[in-house]
Design a protein that fits this description.
single chain, 105 residues, 5-stranded mixed sheet, 4 helices, 28% strand, alpha/beta, Glutaredoxin, 37% helix
Length: 105
C-alpha cells in the first residue's frame, strides 16, 4: 500500500488516473488499525486493478480537512482526481469496502 503524505497526495491522488482507494487513518484510531489487514487483503486481491493508498491524518491535518475528513475511519475512492464515494465510521466494514472497490474495477 502506497503511504501518502502532504507532499505526494496531490500528485498521486488528485492528479492520478483511474480509480484510487485512500484509507484515511489516524494514530490511536483502533477501528482504523482493525481495518488495515482487511484492506491489505483487498489490495492483494484487487491491487492490479485499483491503486491502494493510505494517509495518516494525524500527520496531515490540513490536508485531511481539505478533503472533508472529519471523523475516522474513512475509506474513499477517487477517480481522475475527484472523490466519488466514501465510507465513514460505522459504514467502514470489510464487506462494504470490498463492495465499493468492486464498483470501480
Amino acid at each position: 500500500m502506497l503511504e501518502l503524505d502532504r507532499n505526494n497526495f496531490e500528485e498521486v491522488v488528485l492528479q492520478g488516473e483511474g480509480a484510487i482507494l485512500v484509507d484515511f487513518y489516524g494514530d490511536g484510531c483502533v477501528p482504523c488499525a482493525a481495518l488495515t489487514p482487511h484492506i491489505e487483503a483487498l489490495e492483494e486481491k484487487y491491487g492490479d486493478q485499483i491503486l491502494f493508498t493510505a494517509l495518516n491524518t494525524t500527520k496531515a491535518r490540513r490536508l485531511s480537512i481539505s478533503q472533508r475528513i472529519l471523523g475516522l475511519p474513512v475509506v474513499a475512492i477517487y477517480q481522475n482526481g475527484e472523490k466519488v464515494e466514501e465510507l465513514v465510521k460505522d459504514d467502514c466494514t470489510p464487506e462494504a469496502i470490498e463492495e465499493m472497490v468492486k464498483k470501480y474495477i
